[in-house]
Write a structure and sequence with these properties.
The complex is a heterodimer. Chain A is mostly helical. Chain A contains 13 helices and two strands. Classes of the chains: A mainly alpha, B mainly alpha.
C-alpha cells in the first residue's frame, strides 16, 4: 500500500517536472505578454520617446472611434472577412464533397488541394504577385492569349477593387486545403447506417445531399467555421507582401494597422488596444458561430 | 446508366481542373526558375520553359551568398525549433496523459485555449521583452516565439497518443524497476513514434514558413529568415529567374516532407483542429 502511494506521489512530481519546460515557454511568451498587452492598451507608450508606459485609462479605445484610418481598416477587414469566410466554407465543402463522392483515384487531386498548407504563405504571395502583375503576369497572359479576352486584363494589384479580390484569392488558396480536410473528415464520420437508410428511403442525388448529408455535418460547421473566422479576420501576410495595404489604403486591414502602429510608428499602447479589439472580434464571432450551430441542432 | 457515367466523368473533370488551379503557382515558380530573364520578360511569354536552363540555380550557389545566408538562418531556426518543440511536447504530453498532478487539468485547458489567440495580441510585449534582453535579430529570439506558436497543437497531439497506450505497458516497466523517466524514455516514447512524426512534420513546415514573427522580431537583413527576406527583395530585384530558383528551393523541402507523411499529417490535423 505504502509503495503505491509513494509511486503516485513520485509520478506527480515527475508530472510537474515534465510540464515545466512547456509551461515556462507558454508563460513567458503567452501569459505574460497577454497581461502586458492589456496594460499597454490602457497606456500611452511611444517606444521611441517614452521611457515607460503612462497609464491613461480607456483613452486608446475612445480614440479609435475618431480615427478615420481605424474605421477604414475595420470596414475593410469586415468586408474581406464576410467574403473570405463564405467562400472558404462553400468552396471547401464543395471540394470535400467532390472528393467524397469520387472515391477512387482521387489521391492526386487530394494531394494537389492539400499541398498549399505546407507552402510558406509569404512566398506564395510573391509568386501570386507575379501571376497578377500587369505586363508579364500569367493571369493577363491567360486572359489575353488563351481566352482571347484582353479586355479583362488589368493591373490587378494596383486598382482598389481588384487588389482586394487578388488578396482574397491568395488567402483562399492558402486556407482551402485545411478546411477541406476538416469537411472531408466530417463527411467520412457520417455513419454508414444513416447513408444506407437514406438509400432505402429512395433519397438520391441532390435530395440525399440536401436532406441527409449536409444536416449531418453540424459539428464540422462549428470547427471549420472557427478556423475560417480566424483565417479571415487575421489576414495579414497577403496585403503586407502583395500590396502593402495599397493602392492608397484600399487593402489596409486591422492586423496590418496594428503592425503599422506598433512597428512603424511605435505607438505600442494604441496598437495593443487595437490588437485586443481584434482578439475580441475573433472570440465573439467564434462563440456566435458555435451558438448558432448548436441552436439549430436542438430544433 | 450512361447519364450516371457522364455525371461521374463531369465530377472527375471538375476535380482535375480545381487540382490544376491549386498547383499552378507552385509550378509557375519552378518553371520560372528554369527560364532565362529574357524569356520571362519576353512579349511572347509562355507557362512552360522553352529550353530549361539551370543558370539561375548556378547563380544562387556561385554568387547568391545572401540567399544562402537567409536559407541558413531558416535552417538553424527550424531545426532547433523543431527539436525543442518535440522534446517539450513529448514531455508535457506524457505528463498531461499519465502523470496527473494538482492543477494539471487547468494548465492543459489554458494551453489549448491559447491556440485561438491572434499573434497580434502577444507580439508587442514579446518585441519589448526581446529588445530589453537583446534578443531581437538573433536566432534564439525567433526560435522561442516559434516554439510557443506550435507548442499547444503539439502537446495536444502527444497527449492523445500517450493516452492511447495501455497502462499495462508502464506497469510492467515499473515492476522491472524502471523510474518514471526511464519508462518514458525507453518504453513509451518508441511506441509514440507516430505522434512524434506528426509533431515533427507539423512544427517543421510551420516554423519554416512563418512570416509574422520573423517580420517583427528580425528587422536586420542578417537575421531574417528566408520567408521574410525574399518578400523584401521583391521590389528592387525583378530578377524573376533567380528569385524563382530561391523560392523553389524553399518550398521543395516542406512539399517533399508532406508527400511522404501526408496520411499521418492529415489525421493529425483533424485531431488537433477538432478537439483543440
Amino acid at each position: 500500500m505504502k509503495k503505491t502511494w509513494t509511486r503516485s506521489r513520485q509520478k506527480s512530481v515527475w508530472g510537474v517536472l515534465f510540464v515545466l519546460p512547456c509551461f515556462l515557454i507558454i508563460f513567458l511568451f503567452v501569459i505574460y505578454p497577454l497581461f502586458y498587452t492589456g496594460y499597454l492598451s490602457l497606456s500611452d507608450y511611444n517606444f521611441i520617446y517614452d521611457r515607460a508606459p503612462k497609464f491613461t485609462g480607456f483613452s486608446n479605445y475612445a480614440k479609435m472611434f475618431l480615427d478615420s484610418d481605424f474605421v477604414h481598416a475595420m470596414k475593410t477587414t469586415l468586408f474581406f472577412a464576410v467574403f473570405d469566410f463564405s467562400l472558404l466554407m462553400v468552396i471547401s465543402l464543395a471540394i470535400a464533397l467532390l472528393l467524397f463522392f469520387c472515391k477512387r483515384g482521387t489521391w492526386l487531386f487530394r494531394t494537389a488541394v492539400f499541398m498549399p498548407i505546407v507552402v510558406p504563405a509569404s512566398l506564395a504571395c510573391i509568386v501570386f504577385s507575379w501571376i497578377f502583375s500587369e505586363n508579364f503576369g500569367l493571369l493577363n497572359y491567360f486572359l489575353g492569349t488563351a481566352l482571347h479576352l484582353p479586355a479583362l486584363a488589368r493591373p490587378w494589384l494596383t486598382q482598389p477593387g481588384s487588389a482586394m479580390s487578388s488578396i482574397l484569392v491568395v488567402n483562399l488558396w492558402c486556407n482551402i486545403g485545411f478546411e477541406t480536410i476538416l469537411f472531408l473528415s466530417g463527411l467520412q464520420s457520417i455513419s454508414g447506417d444513416v447513408l444506407e437508410a437514406a438509400d432505402m428511403d429512395g433519397a438520391v442525388g441532390w435530395k440525399k445531399l440536401v436532406y441527409v448529408i449536409l444536416p449531418n455535418l453540424k459539428e464540422t460547421y462549428v470547427v471549420a467555421g472557427i478556423w475560417a473566422i480566424i483565417a479571415a479576420l487575421k489576414v495579414f501576410v497577403e496585403p503586407m507582401v502583395m500590396t502593402n495595404g495599397g493602392p492608397g489604403n484600399a487593402t489596409l486591414v486591422l492586423y496590418m494597422y496594428i503592425y503599422n502602429n506598433a512597428f512603424l510608428y511605435f505607438n505600442m499602447g494604441y496598437a495593443s488596444a487595437i490588437a485586443f479589439v481584434l482578439s475580441g472580434m475573433i472570440l465573439f464571432f467564434s462563440l456566435l458561430n458555435m451558438k448558432l450551430n448548436s441552436e439549430e441542432a436542438e430544433r | 446508366m450512361s447519364a450516371k457515367k457522364a455525371n461521374r466523368f463531369f465530377l472527375y473533370l471538375l476535380l482535375a481542373v480545381i487540382a490544376l488551379i491549386f498547383v499552378v503557382p507552385i509550378f509557375y515558380s519552378l518553371f520560372n526558375s528554369l527560364k532565362s530573364q529574357q524569356e520571362i520578360l519576353s512579349v511572347n511569354m509562355t507557362f512552360f520553359p522553352h529550353r530549361p536552363i539551370l543558370d539561375n540555380y548556378a547563380y544562387v550557389f556561385a554568387r547568391g551568398g545572401k540567399y544562402l545566408n537567409y536559407y541558413r538562418t531558416s535552417v538553424v531556426i527550424t531545426v532547433l525549433g523543431v527539436v525543442i518543440t518535440v522534446i517539450c511536447s513529448a514531455m508535457a504530453g506524457y505528463a498531461f496523459a499519465k502523470l496527473p498532478f494538482k492543477g494539471s487539468g487547468v494548465i492543459m485547458a489554458f494551453i489549448l485555449f491559447v491556440v485561438t489567440f491572434p499573434l497580434a495580441a502577444l507580439l508587442i510585449p514579446i518585441y519589448i521583452m526581446e529588445y530589453n534582453l537583446g534578443l531581437l535579430n538573433t536566432a534564439w529570439g525567433l526560435i522561442f516565439p516559434n516554439v510557443m506558436n506550435v507548442l499547444p497543437f503539439s502537446v495536444f497531439i502527444m497527449r492523445g497518443v500517450f493516452k492511447a497506450i495501455p497502462k499495462e505497458m508502464e506497469e510492467s516497466a515499473e515492476m522491472d524497476g524502471c523510474s518514471v523517466f526511464q519508462t518514458w524514455l525507453n518504453i513509451v516514447l518508441p511506441i509514440a513514434r507516430n505522434g512524434l512524426v506528426i509533431v515533427t512534420v507539423f512544427s517543421f513546415y510551420s516554423i519554416w514558413g512563418e512570416y509574422t514573427m520573423g517580420k517583427t522580431l528580425a528587422t536586420e537583413d542578417s537575421a531574417m529568415p528566408i520567408s521574410v527576406a525574399l518578400t523584401m527583395l521583391k521590389g528592387d530585384s525583378w530578377n524573376f529567374g533567380v528569385l524563382g530558383a530561391v523560392i523553389t528551393m524553399t518550398i521543395i523541402p516542406p512539399i517533399v516532407v508532406f508527400l511522404i507523411f501526408q496520411k499521418q499529417l492529415v489525421e493529425g490535423m483533424v485531431q488537433g483542429a477538432v478537439k483543440g
